[in-house]
Amino acid sequence: MSNSKVIVITGASSGIGEAIAKKQANAGDKIVLGARREDNLKKIKSDIEAAGGQAEYLVTDVTDVTDVEQVRALAQKALDAYGRIDVWINNAGLMPHSLLIDAKVDDWNRMIDVNLKGTLYGIAAAQHIFHAQNTGHFINLGSVASLYSHAGGAVYSATKWAVKAISESLREEEAQAGKNVRVTTLYPGAVNSELVAHMTDEKRREATAEFYKNFAIPAERIAQIVNDVLNMPADTTLNEIVVRPTTQVQ
Predict the structure, then answer these.
(1) Residues near 79 by beta carbon (within 8 Å), at least 6 away in sequence
(2) Are 36 and 11 in contact (CB under 8 A)?
(3) What is the DSSP string of 2-35?
(4) What is the spatial distance between Cα 70 and Cα 75, in angstroms, rounded to a whole number?
(5) What is the pTM of this model?
(6) What is each CA distance from 249 to 188, 189, 215, 230, 245, in whole angstroms?
(7) C-alpha–C-alpha distance, residues 214 and 246, integer Å
């Protein structure tokens, strides 16, 4: 398809990333999948190709805190396979809630590495490519936790507030640069994914799993929103979108 896009997705091995990949591949876009679990990536690539789509993958750990080379390698994979990158989706994320008094420092560091540094690394990998092309689109996954915090969610919210701040700064920077680079930030509420499984606090994991069981919407709902965002005319950007299950209060 002449209007097909090359879309790079981090955290693409399950949940929202997988749903977006399959939705956009079905729409005719070329997908480059990045995540840590190669078996999952192989399966998603196979599913996409079986449905007539195009996909590549590269095992990518956005938590490589020594440099951005793994994420840059993912960008290079897209360039080698398809010659360009039209959309970069910073989707990788973790949500191990806990009280600050429990001092789960390892969980704090993992969230900072994945949610915050992973987003920055994705921007670093793609921004110069977008400028050289004179076009591009960043889609960053925040959370409703980007907009409020609560007991047990301090560090997760801090990382997601940071995603909001980075995205807004990036949006203004790109508007000033005049390189036709769009920036969209999504703030999902409860969505069926593996986020709950990352919780190391057993009581909070069980309580959150019960909440999600009653309220969470399918990841395909977020994929539909991404599809809507990408179908906007190039002169218009949907910058911020909050999406919750209809019955979710916070």
Answers:
(1) 85, 129
(2) no
(3) TT--EEEEESTTSHHHHHHHHHHHHTT-EEEEEE
(4) 9
(5) 0.93
(6) 13, 10, 10, 28, 9
(7) 12
CA–CA dist 91, 89 (Å, integer): 6
What is the residue-level pLDDT of the chain in tens, covering all 250 positions? 458 999 999 999 999 999 999 999 999 999 999 999 999 999 999 999 999 999 999 999 865 554 589 999 999 999 999 999 999 999 999 888 899 999 999 999 999 999 999 999 999 999 999 999 999 999 999 999 999 999 989 999 999 999 999 999 999 999 999 999 999 999 999 898 766 666 666 766 676 666 666 788 999 999 999 999 999 999 999 999 999 999 888 7
Q: Which 8-state DSSP code applies to residue 173?
A: H
Give the tokens for residue 210: 């019960």
| Residue from 57, 121, 156, 187 carrying the catalytic annotation | 156
Residues in the chain: 250
Is residue 156 part of the annotated active site? The answer reads yes
